[in-house]
């Protein structure tokens, strides 16, 4: 573990990423304390530019809401959407990929057809249809994102499992009398974990982008202040009050960037090739 | 006059490597037409020293002092451009892994012609001519066809020949061969060695040959260098070093070579009930999933194999690569489902036994795997590796741990090993853990598939001793799969010889090794390198 | 080869049918129907009006009958009639498809070509500031929301600088023909194609770079160096070709995503393509159009996958010559 | 200034119309384009007074039961056939009766149509119907060529794709997803008109892009609602840009929130009144609607005939609202607020209302949906509060009564009495007021009606919407009548 940490820290970008993300997480957690009032509250006249008033650091939006408060509460939503949808996607993709890779043959064929099917549908279009059908609410936004983002997980896990499956320690486990489930959960998945973790960090980033795209099209949960919502709402005034879309845009950019950097750092730190060398 | 002269060469390793220097204060000379062998255990710096001559050290690995004189100039001082002119034309190199050393997307011919192109030699048509001639010269069958083939269409031995053809294209002064035969089976190895020997003679080319196989050294070397942890510990003519080693390390290495001849415990009598009987076992693979141009290919990996294994007996299964040894072993433990035939384990047929029942029976028959790296889950502690089997079969965790401790002691490991991860052990220690795992379930039979092939000679010897010892103490029966006849000779009571999926010869080890019935077995025996040397050693000893 | 393609086509038909069925139920499960939407826009309606419309659209029949009718048509490549636009869905899509193909095609080619070039350039300069600049840019493009880039691009290039048209497919009413028209469309294409392509370009850049570095470490590259080949030749002939394999695979997988991105891009840039058609059709519950667009886009994705597989076969002899 | 002939007019259209055959489809964009192609008998000035259209003169009998129209002679359909009284009869009596739900309701008062000669049409009513003369604009009673449609399946007539009317512009080309092109009708019956050579309606789906289109000179006319309100101030400041909020008088768009009168706690008038006073309409007008439009005082828009300003006060008063809520049966329930899916302004408005209600202690959850979902939810009365805005068509009998009639409360349509307001007294009063002959009598009756409805507070009235039409100043007379750009551009000309 210490080893891992040391390798991770060797990547300067990854450290910066971790720093940014920690900051975002802190803001998200502390949002209710820092901005106890609802981010929807209209506190001042609309379109106050940033830094023009002491207590409204980033100014106000089209209906006079505190942009800073929106940003803080939006951090929570974006992270929540990113994390939960990724977890759900993993919960779908990992079992499917693992079963496909482990049992191979017909099971693999069937599961992979199923995955392919979901990959053939343009994912963003599917998300739109899902949300039109089930009405936008946070839960369904998360579900929709998860549904369109699990196939790569399944493919990755399958590939990993396929290559792990023939490793001798798996055969040894079979001979030791372990059941399939035990072998998958105890021996295969832990070893497939590094690439899954890396992918997951990218998926969180993608989910945040997807949520913002959906919000932008008006398919977000209207009761929830998210960054995508803020951009979507501000796009109509992008010309005069460009900062209203710029600020949350930067927030998304930075967070996604941070997640990517972390992903890269994890990739380096978890890379078996590098790991083996410093054994 | 020496062609190449290395003086006090020290090669530094980047930070975080296992030691500071890949090689330290290396000095040696190479004369034209001479074959110089570099031997030593894995990681001793053989490859790095050779790569330094080519100017092909990996990133971060740099020569820090010393000089390499070739043709009157210090290679280390040459610019990249000047090095380009040398590489491939004056000094050539071939590598160990024949599969990955060729570009998978380029035709063989093109890859050879590239050498001429790189040095601006010959015209297009002539290059093709030359490539054909080279392929013929290295003994590729049907060069007209092969020249248009892709690497994956060739066997390992053929690929290695292509590599050699490439290295020889511009008739270099020096050929560096870094373990060129390690991945090949004995027969192919013998052919390649002969090829190198011939070429050397014909062209008066100097060869630096890196290997850890003393048999090979004995067969081809003029002079020998022995390396240990980056330093040259001994150097001299082949005879001096091999027969009268001065340094204790060299001594130890030579001691550890298993002998083909010598006393075998002798076949046990075919007494009592066999613990394992294999009857008419067949395994057919069909490959080519039909994904693209799906022609199905059917491989009869094992055909109609039958034999008995008695209590306390060790049977060696030998044969060239691809002859079906592993497949046979894996069918017996049911890691593969046999296509046909019976496998009677203590009287019961497990060949087609379904899940739960099979699981119950299978604990009686365990396996030791080839690769000590991939046969242990890198994320499991040793305690878990040793206990999860017994626990799965109903032992309490406490009992299982106790037993695991005993097993570790049995295979000669400290009890503190329990809480460590596999990567914290050396290859030999790992193989011991693998053995302990196989024994944890109290099997009657152990199948060892190339259990010592991946190990250095010295460690190989230790593990073989351990196995022999355990077998005697626990009265185990063992199937010992190997392609190394020396190893088989050392440990087996009886030997089964396989060729193309069939058992073609079975008999007591002595008989099979001294006086085989089939030509095939004889050819296998003949291909073993270093037999004269062994005799000489025996004579000397 | 033909057998392989035929097999794939058969499989594709099943996937397409499955997609149609899934979407059919999804979209029919959505609240509201096209009649209600049309009545809604008219601002007034009564039961008769709605019933007439529904009867006219065939929505008064049981769902399974509607599905059956639709599927029967679909297998004969008849995609039905648009309730709202009152024309055959096939015509509607056919009119819009070229615009989408142009946009996604341009974005795709752009992203792939530039991405690979940038990736190669970065890998060649690994560790230098050039590499850092390219990698950082790629990461930035990768992390920026597409629609945000689109908005900003319009503001900067169209409004502030006035260099490029900010939306639309061509200058309406200018009456350009032939080359002039192509040029005009090209100018309109630049912003949306770049916007759509940036994200994917970033992906290909990163992928190519990583793949180049990975391949550079392989044994056969060492062999090539041992031959005395010059660095450039090695990079081009040995490294790049092998490094492109995973990029091609990824590009194949990404076809569906490019189309998804087109929905956003076409909306922001008023590009008359099928992505926008679908988005509008969803809002209008124009069932047949939605299904038609899904059908066509999925078919295109499948076709694209097939093409990449075939390309792959030509690039990688191991697949071509199995056996 | 003397009008100049010639030139191309570029107009934004949004959303893309589903079709241009206005007899079949009457949604906003269709009306806008089809208004250039089709005409009706009359036109209305911005005070809703009738002027000649296809009818050059008209008269009403004393008892209010007979309306006689004299038609222009020599009017031709775009295919060259002459327009006659037969076409009028066919259009009203056959075609529109079959296809036009809004007109159909009014036609219940019609006894018969007679055509004594090709240029005279006589409408006989069963009973006096005050708003009758207000029906003859192209969106309500377009004139449709009998020779093309008679005896055909109207909905599937191929001619629907190439609409044929009598209007000043002819249909030329519709590039779906891009533009609709109309060209000048050279045979128009008024000498010298229209002035314009051609009109392009540009389909641009994104509001921001529509603003850019105007700013970059791609289009010259932005009809009301085509850019987001937030963009209006900026565009207004541009050179050579004129803005008018005229042209909506006939429609009198009034925004309000439906209140589901059945659902507790909203069945309690106190709760509804509390909401009424909780909403800051001025803020909405100023921050969201650019200060355009007027704060609503009741169910009738001030531009509509018979508007009364003597209704009970419903203005913003949070303290009063809190007090009312305190007294009411509200007990912290979550109120679902259904927003109107027509763009950002409406979304912002829902958020502002949610916040307004939060201030007085109501818990509100916004429900998002698209147009179809909105329709369904409102039709099924699956909501607590729902934004809407509806046209009044110049007369309470046409555009107001429908929302308050008890009989109109069945589910299935989003434009009837969705709130399920039940007041038999009001029903009776509406019935009587529609049949009164004298405008003075009607005025009195409607004043009383408005007073009662406002006291009952069945809905929360918000704003009389002001939709600005923006155009370049050198484009003269883009809006001349009470239906604005939905009328034809026949009087519009471009100064060179
Ligand atoms: N690319 C590299 N970076 C850092 N250290 C390296 C690298 N390659 C090899 N080493 C280290 O250099 C030392 C010498 O390695 P070398 O490859 O020369 O050994 P070898 O004698 O050829 O062993 P083998 O028989 O296993 O091939 C070892 O300690 C090894 O870990
Ligand atoms: N899973 C498999 N699918 C298809 N063919 C296989 C499979 N496993 C082995 N084979 C083929 O079966 C034959 C026998 O293989 P096997 O591994 O048993 O040989 P071996 O004698 O163990 O060789 P080696 O000494 O190289 O380990 C070979 O031709 C091999 O290619
Ligand atoms: Mg080596
Ligand atoms: Mg084997």
UniProtKB/TrEMBL annotation, chain A:
GO CC, one annotated term: plasma membrane
Family statement drawn from the similarity comment of this UniProt entry: Belongs to the binding-protein-dependent transport system permease family.
* One Pfam family linked to the record: OppC_N
Where does this protein reside within or beyond the cell?
Cell membrane
Name of the featured protein: ABC transporter permease
* GO terms of biological process kind: peptide transport; protein transport; transmembrane transport
Predominant location of this chain?
Answer: membrane
Transmembrane portions of the chain: 12-35, 75-103, 124-150, 196-220, 241-262
Keywords assigned? Cell membrane, Membrane, Peptide transport, Protein transport, Transmembrane, Transmembrane helix, Transport
Does the keyword Oxidoreductase feature in the UniProt annotation? no
Lipid bilayer topology: Multi-pass membrane protein
Q: Can you give the residue ranges of the ABC transmembrane type-1 domain? A: 75-263
From TrEMBL, chain B:
Q: Which UniProt keywords apply?
A: ATP-binding, Cell membrane, Membrane, Nucleotide-binding, Transport
* Record family assignment: Belongs to the ABC transporter superfamily.
Query: By its UniProt entry, which InterPro entries does this protein fall under?
Result: AAA+_ATPase, ABC_Ni/Peptide_Import, ABC_transporter-like_ATP-bd, ABC_transporter-like_CS, Oligopep_ABC_C, P-loop_NTPase
Q: What's its membrane topology?
A: Peripheral membrane protein
Q: What is this protein called?
A: ABC transporter ATP-binding protein
Primary subcellular site in the record, as a coarse category: membrane
Query: A GO BP term, please?
Result: peptide transport
Domain ABC transporter residues, every copy: 4-254, 276-525
Source organism of the structure: Paracoccus methylarcula
Which SUPFAM superfamilies does its entry note?
A: P-loop containing nucleoside triphosphate hydrolases
Question: Which Gene Ontology MF annotations are present?
Answer: ATP binding; ATP hydrolysis activity
Cellular localisation = Cell inner membrane
GO CC annotations on file: plasma membrane
From TrEMBL, chain C:
Pfam families xrefs: BPD_transp_1 (PF00528), BPD_transp_1_N (PF19300)
Q: Does Transmembrane show up as a keyword for this record? A: yes
Gene3D superfamilies linked to this entry: MetI-like
Membrane topology term reads: Multi-pass membrane protein
Q: Membrane-spanning regions, if any?
A: 12-30, 101-124, 136-165, 185-204, 243-269, 289-315
CDD domains on file: TM_PBP2
Lineage: superkingdom: Bacteria
Keyword hit for Transport:
yes
Gene Ontology biological-process entries: transmembrane transport
**Database matches in SUPFAM superfamilies:** MetI-like (SSF161098)
Annotated GO CC locations: plasma membrane
Show where the ABC transmembrane type-1 domain sits. Answer: 97-312
Subcellular localization: Cell membrane
**Keywords of the record:** Cell membrane, Membrane, Transmembrane, Transmembrane helix, Transport
The cross-references to PANTHER family, in alphabetical order and at most eight, read: ABC TRANSPORTER PERMEASE PROTEIN (PTHR43163:SF9), DIPEPTIDE TRANSPORT SYSTEM PERMEASE PROTEIN DPPB-RELATED (PTHR43163)
Name the family the entry cites: Belongs to the binding-protein-dependent transport system permease family.
Q: What is this protein called?
A: ABC transporter permease
Q: Which organism is it from?
A: Paracoccus methylarcula
């Amino acid at each position: 573990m210490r080893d891992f940490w040391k390798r991770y820290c060797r990547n300067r970008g990854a450290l910066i990423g971790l720093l940014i993300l920690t900051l975002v997480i802190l803001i998200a957690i502390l949002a209710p304390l820092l901005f106890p009032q609802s981010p929807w509250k209209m506190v001042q006249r609309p379109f106050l530019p940033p830094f023009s008033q002491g207590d409204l650091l980033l100014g106000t939006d089209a209906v006079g809401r505190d942009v800073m408060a929106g940003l803080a509460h939006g951090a929570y939503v974006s992270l929540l959407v990113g994390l939960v949808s990724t977890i759900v996607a993993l919960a779908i993709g990992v079992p499917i990929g693992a079963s496909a890779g482990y049992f191979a043959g017909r099971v693999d064929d069937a599961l992979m057809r199923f995955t392919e099917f979901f990959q053939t549908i343009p994912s963003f279009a599917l998300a739109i249809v899902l949300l039109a059908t089930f009405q936008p609410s946070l839960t369904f936004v998360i579900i929709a994102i998860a549904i369109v983002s699990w196939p790569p997980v399944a493919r990755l896990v399958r590939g990993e499992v396929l290559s792990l499956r023939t490793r001798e320690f798996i055969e040894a486990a079979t001979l030791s009398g372990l059941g399939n489930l035990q072998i998958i959960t105890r021996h295969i998945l832990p070893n497939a974990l590094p690439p899954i973790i890396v992918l997951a960090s990218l998926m969180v980033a993608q989910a945040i982008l997807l949520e913002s795209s959906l919000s932008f099209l008006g398919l977000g949960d209207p009761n929830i202040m998210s960054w995508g919502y803020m951009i979507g709402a501000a796009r109509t005034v992008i010309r005069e009050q460009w900062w209203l879309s710029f600020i949350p845009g930067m927030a998304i950019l930075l967070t996604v960037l941070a997640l990517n950097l972390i992903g890269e750092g994890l990739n380096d730190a978890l890379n078996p090739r590098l790991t083996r060398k410093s054994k | 006059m020496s062609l190449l002269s290395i003086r006090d060469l020290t090669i530094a390793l980047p930070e975080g490597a296992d030691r500071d220097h890949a090689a330290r204060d290396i000095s040696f000379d190479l004369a034209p037409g001479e074959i110089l062998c570099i031997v030593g255990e894995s990681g001793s710096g053989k490859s790095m020293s050779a790569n330094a001559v080519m100017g092909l050290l990996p990133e971060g690995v740099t020569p820090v002092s010393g000089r390499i004189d070739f043709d009157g100039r210090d290679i280390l001082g040459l610019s990249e451009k000047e090095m380009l002119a040398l590489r491939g034309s004056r000094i050539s190199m071939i590598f160990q892994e024949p599969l990955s050393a060729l570009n998978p997307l380029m035709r063989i011919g093109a890859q050879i012609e590239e050498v001429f192109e790189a040095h601006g030699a010959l015209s297009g048509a002539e290059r093709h001519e030359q490539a054909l001639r080279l392929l013929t010269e290295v003994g590729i069958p049907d060069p007209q066809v092969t020249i248009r083939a892709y690497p994956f269409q060739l066997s390992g031995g053929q690929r290695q020949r292509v590599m050699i053809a490439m290295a020889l294209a511009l008739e270099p002064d020096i050929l560096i061969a870094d373990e060129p035969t390690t991945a090949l089976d004995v027969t192919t190895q013998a052919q390649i060695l002969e090829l190198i020997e011939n070429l050397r003679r014909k062209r008066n080319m100097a060869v630096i040959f890196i290997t850890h196989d003393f048999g090979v050294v004995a067969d081809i070397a003029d002079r020998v260098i022995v390396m240990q942890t980056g330093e040259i510990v001994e150097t001299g003519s082949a005879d001096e070093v091999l027969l009268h080693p001065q340094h204790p390390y060299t001594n130890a290495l030579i001691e550890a070579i298993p002998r083909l001849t010598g006393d075998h415990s002798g076949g046990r009598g075919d007494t009592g009930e066999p613990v394992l009987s294999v009857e008419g076992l067949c395994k057919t693979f069909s490959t080519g999933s039909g994904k693209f141009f799906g022609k199905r290919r059917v491989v009869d990996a094992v055909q109609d194999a039958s034999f008995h294994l008695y209590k306390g007996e060790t049977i060696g299964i030998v044969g060239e690569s691809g002859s079906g040894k592993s497949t046979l072993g894996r069918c017996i433990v049911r890691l593969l489902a046999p296509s046909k035939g019976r496998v009677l384990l203590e009287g019961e047929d497990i060949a087609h036994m379904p899940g739960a029942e099979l699981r119950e029976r299978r604990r009686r028959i365990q396996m030791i795997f080839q690769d000590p790296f991939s046969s242990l889950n890198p994320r499991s502690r040793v305690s878990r590796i040793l206990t999860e089997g017994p626990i799965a079969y109903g032992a309490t965790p406490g009992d299982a741990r106790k037993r695991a401790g005993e097993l570790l002691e049995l295979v000669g490991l400290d009890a503190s090993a329990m809480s460590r991860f596999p990567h914290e052990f050396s290859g030999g220690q790992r193989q011991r853990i693998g053995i302990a795992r196989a024994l944890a379930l109290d099997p009657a039979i152990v199948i060892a598939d190339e259990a010592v092939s991946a190990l250095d000679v010295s460690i190989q010897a230790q593990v073989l001793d351990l196995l022999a010892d355990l077998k005697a103490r626990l009265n185990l029966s063992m199937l010992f799969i190997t392609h190394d006849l020396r190893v088989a000779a050392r440990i087996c009571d009886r030997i089964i010889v396989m060729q193309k999926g069939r058992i073609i010869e079975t008999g007591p080890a002595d008989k099979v090794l001294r006086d085989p019935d089939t030509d095939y077995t004889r050819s296998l025996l003949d291909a073993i390198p270093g037999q004269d040397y062994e005799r000489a050693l025996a004579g000397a000893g | 080869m033909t057998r392989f393609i035929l097999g794939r086509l058969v499989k594709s038909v099943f996937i397409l049918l499955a997609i149609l069925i899934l979407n059919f139920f999804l979209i029919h499960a959505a609240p509201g129907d096209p009649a209600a939407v049309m009545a809604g826009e008219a601002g007034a309606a009564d039961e008769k009006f709605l019933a007439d419309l529904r009867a006219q659209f065939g929505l008064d029949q049981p769902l399974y009958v509607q599905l059956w009718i639709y599927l029967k048509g679909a297998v004969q490549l008849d995609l039905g009639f648009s309730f709202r636009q009152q024309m055959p869905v096939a015509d509607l899509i056919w009119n819009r498809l070229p615009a989408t193909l142009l946009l996604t095609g341009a974005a795709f080619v752009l992203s792939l070509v530039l991405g690979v070039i940038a990736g190669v350039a970065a890998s060649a300069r690994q560790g230098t500031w050039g590499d850092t600049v390219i990698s950082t840019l790629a990461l930035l493009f990768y992390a920026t929301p597409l629609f945000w880039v689109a908005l900003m691009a319009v503001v900067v290039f169209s409004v502030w600088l006035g260099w490029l048209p900010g939306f639309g497919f061509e200058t309406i009413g200018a009456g350009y023909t032939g080359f002039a028209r192509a040029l005009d469309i090209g100018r309109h294409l630049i912003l949306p194609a770049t916007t759509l392509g940036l994200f994917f370009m970033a992906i290909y850049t990163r992928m190519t770079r990583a793949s180049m570095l990975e391949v550079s470490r392989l044994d056969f590259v060492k062999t090539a160096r041992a031959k005395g080949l010059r660095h450039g030749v090695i990079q081009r002939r040995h490294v790049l070709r092998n490094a492109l394999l995973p990029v091609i695979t990824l590009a194949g997988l990404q076809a569906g995503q490019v189309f998804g991105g087109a929905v956003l891009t076409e909306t922001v840039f008023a590009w008359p393509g099928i992505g926008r058609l679908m988005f509008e059709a969803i809002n209008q519950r124009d069932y047949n159009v939605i299904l038609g667009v899904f059908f066509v886009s999925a078919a295109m994705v499948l076709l694209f996958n097939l093409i990449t597989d075939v390309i792959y076969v030509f690039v990688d002899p191991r697949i071509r010559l199995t056996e | 200034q003397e009008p100049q002939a010639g030139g191309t007019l570029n107009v934004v259209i949004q959303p893309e119309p589903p079709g241009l055959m206005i007899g079949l489809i009457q949604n906003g964009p269709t009306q806008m384009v089809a208004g250039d192609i089709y005409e009706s008998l009359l036109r209305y000035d911005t005070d809703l007074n009738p002027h000649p259209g296809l009818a050059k003169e008209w008269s009403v009998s004393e008892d209010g039961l007979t309306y006689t129209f004299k038609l222009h002679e020599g009017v031709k359909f775009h295919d060259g056939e002459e327009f006659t009284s037969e076409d009028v009869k066919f259009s009203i009596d056959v075609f529109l009766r079959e296809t036009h739900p809004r007109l159909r309701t009014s036609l219940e008062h019609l006894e018969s149509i007679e055509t004594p000669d090709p240029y005279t049409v006589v409408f006989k009513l069963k009973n006096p119907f005050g708003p009758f003369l207000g029906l003859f604009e192209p969106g309500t009673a377009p004139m449709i060529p009998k020779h093309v449609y008679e005896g055909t399946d109207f909905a599937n007539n191929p001619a629907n794709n190439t609409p044929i009317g009598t209007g000043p512009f002819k249909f030329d080309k519709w590039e779906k997803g891009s533009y609709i092109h109309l060209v000048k009708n050279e045979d128009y019956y008024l000498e010298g008109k229209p002035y314009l050579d051609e009109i392009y309606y540009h389909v641009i789906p994104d509001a921001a892009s529509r603003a850019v289109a105007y700013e970059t000179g791609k289009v010259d006319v932005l009809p009301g609602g085509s850019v987001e309100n937030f963009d209006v101030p900026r565009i207004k400041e541009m050179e050579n840009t004129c803005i008018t909020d005229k042209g909506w008088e006939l429609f009198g768009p009034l925004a309000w929130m439906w209140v589901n009168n059945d659902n507790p706690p909203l069945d309690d008038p106190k709760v509804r009144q509390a909401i009424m006073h909780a909403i800051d309409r001025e803020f909405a007008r100023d921050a969201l609607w650019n200060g355009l439009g007027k704060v609503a005082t009741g169910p009738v828009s001030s531009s509509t005939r018979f508007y009364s300003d003597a209704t009970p006060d419903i203005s913003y008063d949070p303290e009063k609202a809190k007090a009312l809520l305190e007294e009411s049966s509200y007990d912290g329930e979550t109120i679902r607020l259904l927003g109107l899916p027509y763009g950002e302004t409406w979304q912002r408005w829902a958020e502002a209302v949610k916040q307004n209600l939060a201030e007085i202690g109501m818990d509100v959850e916004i429900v998002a949906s698209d147009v179809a979902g909105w329709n369904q939810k409102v039709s099924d009365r699956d909501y607590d509060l729902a934004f809407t805005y509806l046209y009044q068509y110049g007369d309470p009998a046409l555009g107001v009564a429908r929302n308050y009639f008890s009989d109109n409360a069945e589910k299935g349509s989003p434009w009837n009495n969705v709130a399920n307001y039940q007041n038999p007294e009001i029903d009776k009063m509406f019935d009587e007021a529609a049949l009164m002959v004298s405008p003075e009598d009607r005025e009195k009756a409607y004043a009383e009606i408005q007073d009662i409805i406002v006291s009952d507070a069945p809905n929360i009235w918000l704003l009389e919407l002001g939709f600005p039409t923006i155009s370049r100043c050198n484009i003269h007379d883009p809006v001349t009548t009470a239906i604005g750009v939905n009328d034809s551009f026949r009087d519009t000309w471009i100064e060179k």
